[in-house]
Write a structure and sequence with these properties.
Elements (H helix, E strand, L loop, with lengths): L10 H23 L9 H15 L6 E2 L1 H10 L6 H12 L6 E2 H9 L5 H14 L18
Antiparallel strand pairs: 1-2
Amino acid sequence: MPSNKNMQGGKAFGLLKEQQRQKLEEINKEYLEDQKYRDEEGLAEKLESLKNKYAEFDLNDEGEIDMMGLKRMMEKLGVPKTHLELKKMIVEVTGGSSNTINYRDFVKMMLGKRSAVLKLVLLFEDKANSAPCKPDGPPPKRDITSLP
């Protein structure tokens, strides 16, 4: 969803989404300036991808992914989870400090060395989406000698 175009759903909703993206962008800048992540390869692109993924599943537009947002994310990725599994995933990401996943915790999990279940599912989904797809158009002409 482009940041300043296509404000469908009313101006107020578009402005709210823009404010949310600005907050996430500020957090991204903090990570770009952090010495701990300086050696990370392609950090700016990773942060932009994480920001878009996070914004997609922030259902209540409050800057946090709650249990229903996480449930929707897992179902969209084809890995439905029970409420107990979702609670465990949230505790694993936040360290038990919250019932929702804020953007800082999300980025820390995705860039960190620990392998949380949510991180593994999201990485698997990224790899599945980046796999080369079938070529478009009609199949190439073949003659009888090329058949097995």
